[in-house]
Automatic annotation (TrEMBL):
DUF2059 domain ranges (all copies): 71-129
Pfam families per UniProt: DUF2059
InterPro entries reported for this sequence: DUF2059
Superkingdom of origin organism: Bacteria
Protein name: DUF2059 domain-containing protein
């Protein structure tokens, strides 16, 4: 799948948003921080191959940082959004996130993006268990919130595609000592789809509980209502596609760079 491969076929806007307004959009919605947090996933790359970062030498951290360079990912996102995000949709989303509730949500989401995943999952899972025991309505609202954020159900397909593109790139670059047939790999990954979907839902609920733990039921309901608006649905469909495409693209590039790294390699 080539660049923009995850971007769904949307009608191109009659008048695309101007680049300076896109910059403001990324900041007011917190999408700039979400993009930056993609780099945190680089640390998972060796583990996906059954290896450790030390297997790739002393230059591993610098290489991963270069591939997941924040400015590079920012530019990629801007290029896609400039072509696909209409001015009307930008205005609608920005108006909500610029509101007092919107800015509180962005502050919480930005902090959550950069928090340790293990901490988020642990604390979030504990909160969900506590709220379920108390009959707290926020659990069901957060489930609906997660569904609204990914109404197109693209999350599972995106994870599968990212895995395929990374493993195939790793095979072709010579990191692995065996060849991977892409069609066979897709069939194998497809077999685990049900389990992957459940795992993603459980993880997303724990993450949401952690992120929005200080918000009232009323606040979360208001957020859900905003996210379910048709315009916001289109915005999130596009933003999800942008994030997934950037992550897949960067993992492909990283696979190629990893092949040139060796244990003990110095700067």
């Amino acid at each position: 799948m080539t660049l923009f491969g995850f971007v769904l076929v949307l009608s191109l806007p009659a008048r695309a948003a101007e680049r300076d307004r896109l910059e403001a959009f990324l900041k007011v919605t917190g999408f700039d921080v979400a993009l930056e947090s993609i780099g945190l996933a680089a640390g998972d790359a060796p583990g996906l191959l059954g290896m450790q970062a030390s297997d790739f030498g002393a230059d591993w951290t610098r290489t991963a940082d270069e591939v997941f360079d924040t400015q590079t990912m920012h530019t990629m996102a801007m290029d896609i959004l400039e072509a696909a995000l209409s001015d009307d949709l930008l205005t609608h989303a920005a108006a909500f996130y610029a509101s007092p509730l919107g800015q509180r949500l962005v502050e919480a989401e930005n902090a959550s993006h950069m928090a340790n995943d293990d901490v988020k999952q642990s604390k979030g899972t504990a909160l969900v268990a506590e709220w379920v025991a108390d009959g707290d309505a926020r659990v069901d609202i957060l489930r609906q919130l997660n569904q609204a954020v990914d109404a197109a159900d693209s999350g599972v397909r995106a994870v599968q595609e990212i895995q395929v593109r990374f493993y195939v790139a790793a095979s072709r670059s010579g990191i692995l000592d065996y060849d991977i047939d892409e069609e066979t790999l897709r069939r194998v990954i497809k077999q685990g789809e049900a389990e992957l979907r459940v795992n993603l839902q459980v993880s997303a609920l724990a993450n949401a509980a952690y992120t929005y733990q200080d918000f009232s039921e009323e606040d979360i309901r208001a957020y859900l209502e905003a996210l379910e608006h048709p315009d916001m649905q289109l915005v999130y469909e596009l933003m999800n596609a942008v994030q997934y495409e950037i992550m897949a693209n960067r993992f492909e590039i990283l696979a190629g760079r990893m092949a040139d790294l060796h244990p003990g390699q110095e700067l």
